[in-house]
Design brief:
3 domains; 2 strands; Growth Hormone, Chain: A; 488 residues; two-stranded antiparallel sheet
């Protein structure tokens, strides 16, 4: 039974938890600080609806590969240096956006700011180092759920701050304040935390450039599971191409496709190079892990966080179009969904700690499947409170599922926690992009059913292939000795 966490303490690992979730909170606040001010930005720059859509897409584009790259970097550099660096660099990128003078500058700054969304991965490794396996679910849930609230904080605070500052540049000063906060907290974080508790070892991957796997079959699965990450980038290019928003011309679109393909082949080459040893000799059983565990967590987060990104984007308009609500009322009802992160994600992590990693995911994904299929039956005859109750039900299970996924991530292989977290996190963004693309072709009801059916498929894979982490994993120290680490 996991021990209780005294969240009112500010000592030891609880201090690290609070300091780190607030770093994630600030990173999300900076990442989404444009959204509540977009109407003002649109008027100032006289943007078309298409140009606004381009900015929104560019804001998440870089996050997908960035989470993979940052996952590799955090395993080698440590979360203290990397999270501090992300916050400080993001402050300057935020200033670039805040004081941009043309749409092209806005677009470039928004694309680069997708980098800050990768900060989430860094904290997963930090929390995994400081909390034992029996507490990691709740700790990761608090980190993810409370940190995610940074986007909601931007929505609630920045418009009022811009009005209080006043003038036509009020929005610029509001964004500048978030940049200053990010810069100062980046410095504070560097001097206030350590990568591990005193006396603990920070394990690093033996090789750089890709995740280490332990069998030829796992290598093939790794290469296959890497494809959707780059496929999502190709999908983004398509949405901006003449076939989509017509923001990119045909030649630029082709160059983009070639570039994405080249990047995947380059990464695949590095993955094979990192793992070439498995073609010469078998990895001892003591150091083996099953990559299918990572693959299932990838797809699970694609459903949980992907559906969250999609619903946050579409719910306000859904309430307006389906039930004729005012934009203000629709916005308030839609805001219930992301706010639930504060309790649902830690709740999913706590459930994982108490009843087990696999069992909690099976229960939560059963709820996601049933909840979204019910939501898919909504029509104009439904009472609005009943529809809101259904979205709350879906949110409880999906956000709880996100907490349960990341309760298991640090238990796969300690030295590669960042890389595992990065790949899983990237799949969350991939899911959001795929689901929103589906929504552009079908009705909201069909969109909900697609999410439910996808969750049902992932649930089927969990029941057959997902294994409960048990016993210990082995890591090699710098002096060649082996240390066993509990995962239960």
């Amino acid at each position: 039974m996991p021990q209780k966490l005294n969240l009112f303490s500010f000592k030891g690992n609880i201090r690290i938890l609070h300091t780190t979730w607030f770093a994630f909170f600030i990173s999300f606040m900076v990442w989404f600080n444009h959204a509540p001010l977009m109407s003002v930005i649109r008027d100032v720059f006289q943007l078309t609806n298409q140009e606004v859509s381009v900015l929104l897409i560019l804001n998440v584009a870089l996050t997908i590969p960035a989470r993979i790259i940052v996952g590799m970097l955090v395993d080698n550099l440590g979360p203290r240096r990397l999270f501090s660096g992300i916050l400080i660099i993001s402050a300057f990128l935020c200033l670039f956006f805040a004081w941009a003078q043309t749409f092209q500058q806005l677009a470039l700054a928004r694309f680069l700011l997708g980098f800050v969304g990768a900060g989430f991965v860094v904290g997963i490794r930090m929390i995994g180092e400081w909390f034992p396996a029996r507490q990691t679910g709740l700790a990761q849930g608090i980190y993810g759920g409370w940190g995610n609230f940074g986007s909601a904080a931007s929505a609630m605070i920045l418009p009022s701050l811009a009005l209080w500052v006043g003038g036509e540049d009020g929005w610029r000063y509001a964004l500048t304040i978030t940049a200053i906060i990010s810069f100062l907290y980046g410095i504070y974080y560097y001097y206030s935390v350590t990568d591990t508790p005193k006396g603990s070892t920070y394990f690093k991957p033996k090789k750089n450039g890709g995740m280490e796997v332990t069998s030829k079959a796992d290598l093939a699965l790794y290469l296959f599971m890497s494809m959707p990450v780059y496929g999502a980038l190709a999908l983004l290019i398509w949405k901006l191409s003449p076939s989509g928003m017509n923001w990119l011309d045909a030649q630029t679109t082709l160059i983009g496709y070639i570039a994405v393909s080249a990047i995947y082949l380059y990464q695949a080459g590095h993955i094979i190079k990192v793992n070439k040893g498995i073609f010469k000799e078998e990895v001892p059983d003591l150091f083996r892990y099953q990559f299918k565990q990572v693959a299932i967590l990838d797809m699970a987060y694609m459903v949980t966080f992907g559906s969250e990104l999609a619903l946050v984007s579409m719910l306000p308009l859904f309430y307006v179009d389906m039930f004729g609500l005012s934009p203000v009322t629709a916005g308030i009802l839609a805001a219930i969904y992301p706010v639930m992160n504060l309790i649902a994600r830690p709740g999913g992590g706590l459930l994982s700690d108490k009843i087990g990693r696999k069992r909690s995911l099976v229960i939560l994904f059963t709820g996601i499947t049933v909840g979204f299929i019910i939501l898919g039956q909504v029509n104009q005859q439904w009472a609005v409170p009943l529809v809101v109750a259904c979205t709350i039900l879906c949110g409880l299970f999906s956000k709880g599922g996100s907490g349960a996924v990341y309760a298991m991530v640090p238990l796969i292989q300690r030295r590669m926690t960042g890389q595992v977290a990065g790949m899983v996190g990237a799949y969350g963004n991939v899911g959001g992009l795929i689901f929103l693309t589906v929504l552009s072709f079908v009705s909201p009801q069909a969109f909900f059913i697609v999410i439910g059916a996808t969750a049902g498929f992932v649930l089927f894979l969990m029941l057959i292939f997902l294994k409960e982490p048990k016993g210990q994993t082995a890591e090699v120290l710098e002096d060649g000795t082996v240390q066993l680490i509990d995962v239960t």
